Amino acid sequence: MTKRRPTEPGKKSVWAYAYQIQPPRTPDRLDSVEAILEREQEDAGAGSRTWQGRLVAEEHVTHILVVSDSPEQDLEVNRRLEAALRSMDLGFTLTAPMPVEEEPFP
Fold it and tell me: What does the DSSP 8-state code read for residue 8?
């Protein structure tokens, strides 16, 4: 279980974690994942939450970097992402959430 870090009054807690996909895939081969990321970002913005997901393609691994106002990793969006990755027979690992000092996304 992840412990929440105390925050200053009026300041949101922000957490980052990543899915690491191996073998790597280019973003154009992950259209269904990109759609999930975009939809969740829109839903979060409409609900005044912080949630951003981005695909980061590197030579040996592709990452889905997630920044959220919650360290929880068993949310509906996580289940949708994991189901999409499994349906494409992609192996992935999930990193532990780490607190971020300041919100990196507006």
Answer: -
Distance CA 9, CA 100 (A): 16
Query: CA-CA distance, 98 to 58, in Å (whole number)?
Result: 21
Model pLDDT for residues 79-91, shown as the tens digit of each residue: 999 999 999 999 9
Q: Are strands 98-100 and 51-57 parallel, antiparallel or unpaired?
A: unpaired
Whether 100 and 16 have beta carbons less than 8 Å apart is answered as yes
CA distance 88 to 101: 35
Q: Round to whole Å and give the CA distance between 90 and 61.
A: 11
Residue 62 bridge partners (DSSP): 21, 57
> Element (H or E) spanning 66, and its range?
strand 62-68
Look up the pTM and report it: 0.81
**For residue 38, what is the enclosing H or E element?**
helix 31-46
